[in-house]
Design brief:
The chain is an alpha/beta fold. 44% of the residues lie in helices and 19% in strands. It has a 4-stranded mixed sheet with strand order 1-5-7-8. It has a 4-stranded mixed sheet with strand order 4-3-2-6. A hairpin with a 2-residue loop joins β9 and β10. α3 runs parallel beside α5, α3 runs parallel beside α8 and α6 packs across α10. The protein is globular, with a radius of gyration of 19 Å.
Length: 300
């Protein structure tokens, strides 16, 4: 199983040799491709060979490309690897609205549970209970927008009073970066399972090529929130070390289907269960992640 995440932050040449990624930066380092789950290319002075890009797609490795501020602004994803692509596409297109709304209800309920757990971890026990009481109001499709109501309470309590997601500060930089890493990993699994990433179950923007990824990311977001709250101070600078640790959250534990898995594997399990729920026409078979204390997964 792939587990290693790499950030290329210096001018480099990346190539393929003996099924290994070769990184040339004056010296040469080699990393087995089978170990690599994600590569973040931060430096804008990187040369990468076509043979390597093709092999990364074959290995289902997600590659992130960054802008001048080191924020990922694009992904390299495999092109339709599923063996029964047309069958999967037909099933996705023909999903009923009631089924999609029930899936969304399930996703948002777990997101709120995970957000409540984050507040519990930082000692906001009264607010945790307040969020959990709101769970019963999340109906099919979340027509009352409980998700939005919870978010206003949650982010107000997560950081200092007066915090706003629109502020230009280290907290938001970490959240945006971490969410983008998660989104790319989810997009990778969506491609692996043969779904159309732009066709969401709730998100429906015609300008968004990753509506489905933006659906499935929701219960995973609190992982980034909790890490940021526990590790970042407002005066910190958004350095490479912080970005490395945010990428490494893909290797942290969550519980899904009653077992501990790293986030990357949990994403695959969630997408696999989505297929099972579609084929069985049972939305309750959709598996969602449960947040646990932040701990790097132990690979056996």
């Amino acid at each position: 199983m792939s587990w290693r995440s790499l950030i290329i932050s210096h001018p480099s040449k990346l190539s393929l040799k003996n099924n290994q990624l070769c990184i040339e930066q004056g010296e040469i380092w080699s990393v087995p491709l089978e170990d690599i789950s994600a590569i973040v290319i931060e430096s804008q002075q990187v040369l990468i060979t076509e043979s390597l890009l093709s092999k990364l797609c074959e290995n289902n490795t997600v590659v992130y490309f960054c802008d001048s501020k080191h924020i990922p602004n694009g992904y390299l994803l495999p092109y339709y690897q599923h063996s029964r692509q047309l069958k999967v596409l037909k099933e996705q297109i023909l999903l009923s609205e009631p089924f999609k709304k029930r899936c969304w209800q399930r996703i948002i309920k777990q997101k709120v549970i995970n957000q409540a757990y984050v507040l519990r971890c930082i000692g906001k026990f009264d607010i945790e209970k307040r969020l959990l009481k709101m769970l019963s109001n999340i109906d099919s499709g979340d027509t009352k927008n409980i998700e939005g109501q919870v978010a206003k309470i949650y982010f107000k309590e997560l950081f200092e009073r007066g915090f706003n997601r629109n502020f230009d500060n280290i907290y938001n930089a970490c959240l945006d970066y971490g969410y983008t890493i998660l989104r790319g990993a989810i997009a990778r699994s969506i491609a692996q399972y043969g779904y159309i990433p732009s066709l969401g179950i709730h998100h429906k923007s015609e300008l968004n090529n990753y509506n489905l990824a933006d659906d499935f990311i929701e219960p995973f977001r609190p992982i980034v929130d909790l890490w940021t709250r526990q590790n970042i101070n407002l005066k910190d600078e958004f350095r490479t070390k912080i970005r490395n640790e945010l990428v490494d959250l893909l290797n942290y534990d969550v519980i899904i289907d009653g077992k501990r898995n790293c986030v990357l594997n949990a994403i695959n399990i969630m997408l696999s269960s989505f297929t099972t729920s579609i084929q069985s026409k049972d939305y309750e078979k959709l598996l969602v992640p449960i947040i646990v204390p932040l701990e790097r997964h132990t690979y056996g």
